[in-house]
Design goal:
about 160 residues, Four Helix Bundle (Hemerythrin (Met), subunit A), about 0% strand
Protein backbone atom coordinates (compact mmCIF):
# COMPACT_ATOMS: atom_id res chain seq x y z
CA UNK A 1 0.00 0.00 0.00
CA UNK A 2 1.38 3.41 -0.90
CA UNK A 3 1.89 6.16 1.65
CA UNK A 4 -0.97 8.06 0.03
CA UNK A 5 -3.20 4.98 0.48
CA UNK A 6 -2.19 4.63 4.12
CA UNK A 7 -2.85 8.32 4.74
CA UNK A 8 -6.24 8.10 3.01
CA UNK A 9 -7.20 5.04 5.08
CA UNK A 10 -6.15 6.74 8.33
CA UNK A 11 -8.01 9.93 7.42
CA UNK A 12 -11.13 7.96 6.49
CA UNK A 13 -11.02 6.06 9.77
CA UNK A 14 -10.69 9.28 11.76
CA UNK A 15 -13.54 10.96 9.85
CA UNK A 16 -15.76 7.90 10.31
CA UNK A 17 -14.96 7.74 14.04
CA UNK A 18 -15.72 11.43 14.47
CA UNK A 19 -18.98 11.10 12.54
CA UNK A 20 -20.07 8.15 14.70
CA UNK A 21 -19.27 10.10 17.86
CA UNK A 22 -21.19 13.13 16.65
CA UNK A 23 -24.22 10.99 15.71
CA UNK A 24 -24.26 9.28 19.09
CA UNK A 25 -23.89 12.55 20.94
CA UNK A 26 -26.68 14.17 18.94
CA UNK A 27 -29.08 11.24 19.25
CA UNK A 28 -28.46 10.41 22.92
CA UNK A 29 -26.85 13.25 24.90
CA UNK A 30 -27.13 11.30 28.15
CA UNK A 31 -25.09 8.48 26.67
CA UNK A 32 -22.34 10.79 25.40
CA UNK A 33 -20.57 10.34 28.74
CA UNK A 34 -19.85 7.09 30.56
CA UNK A 35 -22.52 6.01 33.07
CA UNK A 36 -19.92 6.24 35.85
CA UNK A 37 -19.69 10.01 35.23
CA UNK A 38 -23.45 10.58 35.10
CA UNK A 39 -25.53 11.72 38.02
CA UNK A 40 -27.03 8.63 39.71
CA UNK A 41 -30.55 9.68 38.67
CA UNK A 42 -29.48 10.00 34.98
CA UNK A 43 -27.83 6.58 34.68
CA UNK A 44 -29.84 4.13 32.61
CA UNK A 45 -30.75 0.93 34.43
CA UNK A 46 -29.09 -1.82 32.35
CA UNK A 47 -31.72 -4.36 33.41
CA UNK A 48 -34.85 -2.19 33.15
CA UNK A 49 -35.96 -3.81 29.90
CA UNK A 50 -35.64 -7.29 31.44
CA UNK A 51 -37.68 -6.15 34.41
CA UNK A 52 -40.35 -4.92 31.97
CA UNK A 53 -40.25 -8.32 30.28
CA UNK A 54 -41.11 -9.92 33.63
CA UNK A 55 -37.72 -11.14 34.88
CA UNK A 56 -37.64 -12.11 38.57
CA UNK A 57 -35.32 -10.47 41.10
CA UNK A 58 -33.10 -13.58 40.96
CA UNK A 59 -32.87 -13.35 37.18
CA UNK A 60 -32.19 -9.60 37.37
CA UNK A 61 -29.37 -10.20 39.83
CA UNK A 62 -27.72 -12.70 37.48
CA UNK A 63 -28.18 -10.35 34.53
CA UNK A 64 -26.63 -7.46 36.50
CA UNK A 65 -23.63 -9.63 37.37
CA UNK A 66 -23.14 -10.67 33.73
CA UNK A 67 -23.52 -7.04 32.61
CA UNK A 68 -20.91 -5.90 35.17
CA UNK A 69 -18.45 -8.51 33.91
CA UNK A 70 -19.08 -7.46 30.32
CA UNK A 71 -18.69 -3.75 31.12
CA UNK A 72 -15.41 -4.34 32.95
CA UNK A 73 -13.98 -6.20 29.97
CA UNK A 74 -15.40 -3.72 27.45
CA UNK A 75 -14.02 -0.73 29.38
CA UNK A 76 -10.48 -2.11 29.16
CA UNK A 77 -10.83 -2.83 25.44
CA UNK A 78 -12.41 0.57 24.74
CA UNK A 79 -9.53 2.34 26.48
CA UNK A 80 -7.05 0.34 24.40
CA UNK A 81 -8.94 1.28 21.22
CA UNK A 82 -8.87 4.98 22.20
CA UNK A 83 -5.11 4.76 22.70
CA UNK A 84 -4.67 2.99 19.37
CA UNK A 85 -6.80 5.62 17.65
CA UNK A 86 -4.52 8.32 19.09
CA UNK A 87 -1.53 6.37 17.77
CA UNK A 88 -3.22 6.07 14.38
CA UNK A 89 -3.89 9.80 14.32
CA UNK A 90 -0.24 10.45 15.07
CA UNK A 91 0.79 8.07 12.30
CA UNK A 92 -1.57 9.74 9.84
CA UNK A 93 0.08 13.08 10.56
CA UNK A 94 3.55 11.78 9.68
CA UNK A 95 4.74 12.63 6.16
CA UNK A 96 5.98 9.06 5.61
CA UNK A 97 4.18 6.72 8.04
CA UNK A 98 5.56 3.25 8.67
CA UNK A 99 3.27 0.96 6.68
CA UNK A 100 3.78 -2.05 8.97
CA UNK A 101 3.02 0.01 12.06
CA UNK A 102 -0.11 1.55 10.51
CA UNK A 103 -1.42 -1.82 9.38
CA UNK A 104 -0.64 -3.58 12.65
CA UNK A 105 -2.31 -0.78 14.61
CA UNK A 106 -5.40 -1.01 12.41
CA UNK A 107 -5.44 -4.81 12.74
CA UNK A 108 -5.34 -4.49 16.51
CA UNK A 109 -8.21 -1.97 16.45
CA UNK A 110 -10.20 -4.33 14.21
CA UNK A 111 -9.51 -7.30 16.48
CA UNK A 112 -10.54 -5.47 19.65
CA UNK A 113 -13.68 -4.15 17.97
CA UNK A 114 -14.58 -7.66 16.79
CA UNK A 115 -13.94 -9.07 20.28
CA UNK A 116 -16.24 -6.47 21.80
CA UNK A 117 -18.98 -7.23 19.28
CA UNK A 118 -18.73 -10.97 19.90
CA UNK A 119 -18.76 -10.45 23.66
CA UNK A 120 -21.90 -8.32 23.35
CA UNK A 121 -23.64 -11.04 21.29
CA UNK A 122 -22.55 -13.78 23.71
CA UNK A 123 -23.92 -11.74 26.62
CA UNK A 124 -27.24 -11.31 24.82
CA UNK A 125 -27.46 -15.06 24.22
CA UNK A 126 -26.55 -15.91 27.84
CA UNK A 127 -29.17 -13.49 29.16
CA UNK A 128 -31.82 -14.97 26.87
CA UNK A 129 -31.06 -18.43 28.28
CA UNK A 130 -31.96 -17.14 31.75
CA UNK A 131 -35.39 -16.03 30.61
CA UNK A 132 -38.49 -18.15 30.14
CA UNK A 133 -40.05 -18.45 26.70
CA UNK A 134 -42.76 -15.95 27.69
CA UNK A 135 -40.17 -13.48 29.00
CA UNK A 136 -38.10 -13.80 25.81
CA UNK A 137 -41.20 -13.17 23.69
CA UNK A 138 -42.08 -10.07 25.75
CA UNK A 139 -38.46 -8.83 25.59
CA UNK A 140 -38.42 -9.04 21.80
CA UNK A 141 -41.81 -7.34 21.63
CA UNK A 142 -40.51 -4.44 23.78
CA UNK A 143 -37.36 -4.18 21.65
CA UNK A 144 -39.38 -4.04 18.43
CA UNK A 145 -41.61 -1.31 19.87
CA UNK A 146 -38.54 0.79 20.73
CA UNK A 147 -36.76 0.38 17.41
CA UNK A 148 -36.64 3.49 15.24
CA UNK A 149 -38.82 3.39 12.14
CA UNK A 150 -35.76 3.57 9.93
CA UNK A 151 -32.05 3.05 10.60
CA UNK A 152 -29.91 6.15 11.19
CA UNK A 153 -28.26 7.54 8.07
CA UNK A 154 -24.86 6.15 7.13
CA UNK A 155 -21.89 8.49 7.50
CA UNK A 156 -20.87 10.24 4.28
CA UNK A 157 -18.22 8.49 2.20
CA UNK A 158 -14.70 9.84 2.63
CA UNK A 159 -13.65 12.56 0.21
CA UNK A 160 -11.43 11.25 -2.55
Amino acid sequence: MSNRGIFTACRSLLIFSAACGICLAAQAPALAQPPSQMAPSARPDPVAIYKEAGASEEQLGKIREMARDFETSARVKAERIRNLMRDMQGLSLEPDPDEKKVLSTQNEINGLTADMSLSRIKLMLKVRLLLSEEQRFRLVQIMKERMPASPPPAPPPPAQ
